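Task: sequence in, structure out. Protein: Nitric oxide reductase NorQ protein.
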Amino acid sequence: MIVAEKNIFYKAVGAEIEIFNQINQLRLPLLLKGPTGSGKSRFVEYMANEVNKTLVTVSCHEETSATDLIGRFIIKGAETIWIDGPLSIAVKNGYILYLDEVAEARPDVIVAIHSLTDHRRELFIDKLGETIKAHPDFLLVASFNPGYQKGFKELKPSTRQRFVALSFDYPNPKIEAEILINETGIQADIAQKLVAIGTKIRNLTELGLTETVSTRLLVDAAKLINNGLPKRLAVHVAVVEPLTDEQETIQALNDLCDLMI
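Result:
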């Protein structure tokens, strides 16, 4: 369970804050769509803080099952007891449950949350034979990256249509530079150069990168520079190396970045 930290910086790029506030009032399920590192998780953390709710985050992967979310029986001493999972805890207590990269989870996870995404707002716990009505304040938020391994990790239309959806993308250069400055205290001119590098690499579609430069990677580079690491070396290890293992591509990107900072 993660309690949202205080004083989280988030720079709105559209009407997402107003939309979230409306969704929170109406208790509608929310789906955040967008590439890795585009601010989806930071937005949820920020809004949980703004509406003063406990945030329960589950980072989904290919082994995440409904049992992991709902709960399981465990043996304690001479008895068998039931332990609630993060989904059950959030449903009972009226927390925000955030399923990060929900498309990565096993299909039974999607089945388990279906009844929480419509008028029923209830969770069936098969192993207990119980149905739990969601707390009035419970809110379900999920995210996924539509472009990642396209065709393999997509959400079915029948699932997506159960959510109100918000699309996220990398912010425009001015806002992205402001994010770097506020997150790290980096000088404005260096922040602008880092953003220019990110923008340039994002437009190099001919390199065939699986993922491109996220705002998160630029923040990491800015932190390293602000901590004393040479600028070019910081960009090499925080931006270029995480993108690819192909040595020719790494060298090409390093040469490009060296010219820009």
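The mean pLDDT is 91.
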